[in-house]
Each structure stands twice: as C-alpha cells, then as structure tokens.
Write a structure and sequence with these properties.
mainly alpha; Four Helix Bundle (Hemerythrin (Met), subunit A); heme; Cyt_b561/ferric_Rdtase_TM; endosome; membrane; transmembrane
Length: about 290
Amino acid sequence: MQQGGPSSPSCPSSSDCFPLSHLNTAKCGSETSAEQEKHEPTYLSRMRSITIFYMCYLLCLGLGLACVVCVCVWNSQWRGGFAWDGKARQFNWHPVLMVTGLVVVYGIGAVLYRIPLTWGQNKLPWKLLHAALMLIALVLSIVGLCAVFDFHNANNIPNLYSLHSWIGIAATALFAIQWVVGVAGFLLPCSPISLRKLLKPVHVWMGGSILWLSIAACISGINEKLFFVLKGTANGTQPYSKLPPEALLGNSLGVLIVAFGLVVLKILSNHNWQRPDSRPEDLAYTPLLQEENE
C-alpha cells in the first residue's frame, strides 16, 4: 500500500541542496589562497634578509680574525716578538692590543643585538654579554696604551705629540665614558625609563663614532710605524717607498681593518636587522632584574 503525498526530491549533490554553502566555501577558499599569496612574499623577503645578515656576520667574523692574525704575525715575525721590558718588543703589544680590543672585539660586541637568534629570547643575558665584550675591549685598549706609554717613558720619547696619538686617546676616553654611561643607564635598576629613552639614540650614535675613531687611529698608527721602521738605512731594511714585504703586510692590515669596519657599520645601519623591540615604536626599557621573557 502506497503512502499518499508528494515524494521527496532526491539531492544529487550537496552543492545542489545547499548552493549558498558552495558559494561560501569557494569564497573562503579564494580568501585563504589570496592571504597565502599575500604573506608568501613577506616570508621570502624576511628569509632573504636573514640570510644576507648571516653572510655579512660571517664576513665580519672572518675579517676580524684576519685582522688579529695579521697584526700578530707582523709584530712577531718582523718586529721581534713580545716582552714587557721597556724595549721595542714591549711596544709591539700596543698595535696588537689596540687592533684586537678597540676594533675587533668592539665591533663584534656592537653587532651582538643584530643576531636574529637573540630576538625571541630574554634580552638580559645579551645585555650582560654586550657589556662584558665591551669591557674586555676597553681593558685590552687600556693595557695597549699602558704598553706604549711605558715604552716611551723608558726611552725618553715624548707622549701624545702625533695626530695618531690624539685620535687614539680620544677614542679610548670616549669608549670608557660610553661604557660607564651605558652600564649606569641601561643595566642599573634605579635607572628611570625617561633616561633610557634619552640615552638610547646617543648611545647608538656614539658607538658608531667611536668605531670610526678607532679605525682612524689604527690606520694612522700603522702608517706612522711603517714610516719609522722602513727608512732604508744601514739596518738592512728597504724604504717604505719600495713596498717591501713588511710594508705589504702593514698596508694589508689597514685594508682589512677598514673592510671590517665597513661591514660592522653596514650591519648597524640596516634597519631590517634591528632587534624588533629596539625599534623606536617598540622600545621597551626594562631595568635589570626585571627583564621578562620576550
């Protein structure tokens, strides 16, 4: 016996029964793909920027190592090695310590915050590491100055008479002031936020300026030393104008120092490589012992 009433129409597909849902699904799919296409170039651009940074950072480390090796070879092989006896071998500590401390360690410490691996971590350990590297650079620089002042005094040579010495002492003095003000302004818990905001741009600008002064001091010092020792006199050395092997090494050291400084300044000047919370719109100055995981 058949039941009365119209029979229910069959639905060949869900899209026929629910046409609006089909349209919504298509719309959602198009929005998702459009969103993916929109974010994909941003992701690729970010990865490209990070890759270029690490290439520059490795180049920075390589150039820094080359500077240290070059200045050590120069003073050990051509200048007779090292000692602390008031004689010429004591002076050899001066270029080694100044190049290592005032240029290489200083430059590596300056770009520490730019390393992307540090961005998502607590900033306090990196602040302390930055301060420690800068302290090591400052101590090396001061010992290097002690070596040359002691050598000059032991041999009745005047101090601070050349342009090289003026630039070098100015760079070291500004570096000492920069370190003390940096520790007081950014690491002490009693430092107010307003002071940190005021010091931040000055600290960054002064850091780059000190690096430029350090490079100028090292370049002028290398040139001065080569003029002093390569006079072509009876001691068997060829004059600087003949470009003997020692002059080639000294000039190469100067080129390496300039190249290292340019790479460091390139890293520091690229806004895409700044730590995200160090940009002006995202500054968060948290005192020491109050840092939070970021």
